[in-house]
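Summary for the lay section of the report: proteins are chains of building blocks that fold into shapes. Here we show the chain for Minor histocompatibility antigen H13 isoform B and then a coded description of the shape we predicted for it.
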Amino acid sequence: MEEAAAHNGTGPGAPAPARPPATPEGMALAYGSLVLMALLPIFFGALRSVSCAKSKNSSDMPETITSRDAARFPIVASCTLLGLYVFFKIFSQEYINLLLSMYFFVLGILALSHTISPMMNRFFPANFPNKQYQLLFTQGSGDSKEEIVNYEFDTKDLVCLALSSVVGVWYLLRKHWIANNLFGLAFSLNGVELLHLNNVSTGCILLGGLFIYDVFWVFGTNVMVTVAKSFEAPIKLVFPQDLLEKGLDADNFAMLGLGDIVIPGIFIALLLRFDISLKKNTHTYFYTSFVAYIFGLGLTIFIMHIFKHAQPALLYLVPACIGFPLLVALAKGEVAEMFSYEDSSTPKDVPGASKEETTEAAKKEK
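The coded shape description reads as follows.
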């Protein structure tokens, strides 16, 4: 897949110099579509994050990010990015991307299946022969037996898996931008739904650290740009700026990295759960942060258009997504409540959690 700009994970792309300049209509359509595609997984992922902790499947349980995890994340991300850069410099790009394609082929099918399963259930007839299955892996025996994987699914889930596999084969064979976006949207929605911040302070640490990470690797070095040129995987949303001229065969893409969706998205989802904890039947902080995300992403596109250079989107998204809700909290006198809120989706509060899981979660939070 050819891309309009060599930028991955940090913002919409810009036209490459060798291509004819995109028309104003084409650019407006591309950027507008990217904004809409970014908002969908954040909105629906946040809604699904409220109830996912009640799931009985271990694979559907949220992964809680603590302050220690948040502080280490930019370092781990930097090491991963640098490692990919070295790999692409030493080894053949073709073979590395072949391995990555197979890896994301499997992950994409699972993510897309998990995403469409709740929606597809509405289309099955009432008399559909739905059978229940359970995939269970344990370790040890007797009293020391420990569950490693406990996944419950049914026939409807298998149908969703089959449909997702069709998209996976399409992506693997053609690398078409629509298949790429279907996987990208699924990854984003699953990330917002299943990655939970344990409190607002952790969210500020995570967003602040990745703010520095994004700015450094985009403006300070060419590492991210080089990796973006070489990396062929559905870790970004793309939309052609020449769609009106070339139709579905268009190849002059604007792009938005999934990190710019998931990272602010999990913070916005946390604020939705905080809204619900207040029991005031309002979603003030959720809608405020949602509008802040639109403002930050719009500002990213505007600055990029003015300077004709790919921008680190978190440079604009982080201050907006943290600043807007904080101003609302100051105006309402709820700053203390906001920063004292602890997410109830940690294992210690999940019905059925074992004593060992509760103890481990408590230690991790400390």
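Put simply, here is one thing we learned. The radius of gyration is 21 Å.
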